[in-house]
Amino acid sequence: MPHFTSKNMFVNTNTTFNIDNDTYRVSSYLLSNRFPNLRILPIIGENEVIFVRCIQREGDYLYKVDNLTRHANLQKTKDLLAFLSKDLDEVHHNLHATTKHSKGMQNGFLLYQENLSSIEPDIIEIGFGSGRHLLDLAKKNPQKILLGFEIYQPSIRQVLNAIELNNLQNLYVCNLDARLGIEMFKTSSIEAIYLHFPVPWNKAKHRRVMGRDFVENSFRILKHKGFIDLRSDDLTYVQDCIEEMLSANRVSFAVRKNLLKQDNIASKYEERWVGLNKDIYEIRIFNEDFNGVFREEDSHYFDFDFKVESLLTFSNQKWVENGIFISIGDVYTREGGGEVSVAQLTFGSFYIPFNTYLILEQDKMHYLRSPVNVKSHRLAHEFLCRILKGEVTKG
Hints:
This protein is α+β, with helices and mostly antiparallel strands. The chain has helices at residues 74-85, 99-102, 132-140, 153-165, 178-181, 212-221, 235-246, 268-275, 375-388, and strands spanning 3-6, 16-19, 22-26, 30-32, 38-44, 49-57, 60-65, 90-93, 110-111, 123-126, 146-149, 171-174, 190-196, 222-232, 252-257, 281-286, 317-321, 324-334, 340-349, 353-361, 364-367.
């Protein structure tokens, strides 16, 4: 990932600079209360905050962007770090500009949690990988809006490049865990959800995308007779999925083995497995009827309506209650004291953990990246509020 090392530390805080017509301001360092050689340098844009980690080592300083706040546009990340390094005594860097990191990133088809609701997709693919199947669907269905979920940055850049090269106007990609993303769409609005060759996680089944919660959430957004199309080469995974489906009160699904259509567009993994004569299984689960509990609509649900004096009291602690966990990690505070502090936060269900930062400014709290309005996040937020109010003992 982009980084640089220098013999001296960046000190020109409270300065502004521009990247691709976007203005950023460099704020003051926040110092880790656990590791004295670790600082966070906040870079504040109009609609985003990027944390740059500064690690003081023997003889130099290492600068790199924090993973939780990293921009999907890798070239923009490089440009940001290049600005910080330009007046320093640089030792090493990997910030050279390359077109593969910027091509396609500015075409408006990359979505995040914050603007996911700006589109109304007809078809969704989860974990699109190289994008062969997703791109083929977009080309064959120009009248439909397609959305692909992916958390792997190289795959995102590859498909964004293909969108630009093929001049596709109906395909979007989203950098978000799909298990959270599907909860943000309207009821009965999606025609199909494709999940092809997911990691089976046979030894860590809680990490699987496919499960009862996922199916119920999918059925909420699927239209009547809409479907989930699952494809895999792993028999254990397929059998587990079938068993899960059969445990439901009502279900309609079809299973096919080695009966893919002649015009099927194979992913690189499917192509490899077919070449090795492995069996390919396909399960299509149909939405006949689903009466679930729909998500609440409240734009202020994740506000903190109380004052918090300090985050240090809660640093590096964990709490668990009724399948919901809260983990508050390292706390960073303004050097020399001040009214701003930041804490790493992981919370939610063990099935879908969510990572963000808590920001405390002048005794007012907010999330750096807001949770999604789903049941597990609502319960976790309520649990966190009780912890911060001192109503819960240490876990």
